[in-house]
Design a protein that fits this description.
With about 130 residues, the chain is mainly alpha-helical. About 65% of the residues lie in helices and about 5% in strands.
């Protein structure tokens, strides 16, 4: 998933728009720019339902870390900010479409989880 800099021929990570070796600006195709923007965005599902999101996004190490009480908060913020990138790079997805569908599903599950908890809270609060 790495590219080669056309200026200095060093290997460049796919998420970078500039070569770290020489500073050359890499030209990204429009579809690739959209992918990079999507991967750099926050993962809403990771914020709302960390354990479920990490498992569904195939970031199993972060799933285990999120189960440890003190490190769960760290896992929440790490997955919120970097989870999509980690999931795409290490999740073994067969296609970009499969990955996007799973991220949408996991974000939807996170929203539904918070809505369910809020509904339960309001139900017992108003009794």
């Amino acid at each position: 998933m790495n590219k080669i800099c056309t200026s200095c021929k060093k290997e460049v990570d796919t998420l970078n728009e500039h070569c770290k070796g020489c500073g050359f600006t890499l030209v990204l195709e429009p579809d690739e720019k959209l992918k990079v923007r999507y991967l750099r965005g926050p993962a809403l599902g990771a914020l709302l339902f960390t354990q479920g999101w990490t498992f569904g996004a195939r970031t199993y190490l972060w799933f285990l870390i999120s189960l440890i009480p003190v490190f769960g908060i760290i896992a929440l913020f790490a997955c919120l900010l970097f989870g999509r990138r980690w999931s795409w790079e290490h999740g073994g997805w067969s296609s970009w479409e499969e990955f996007q569908e799973r991220m949408k599903l996991m974000d939807g599950i996170g929203v539904a989880w918070v809505a369910l908890l809020l509904g339960i809270y309001l139900y017992f609060r108003l009794l």
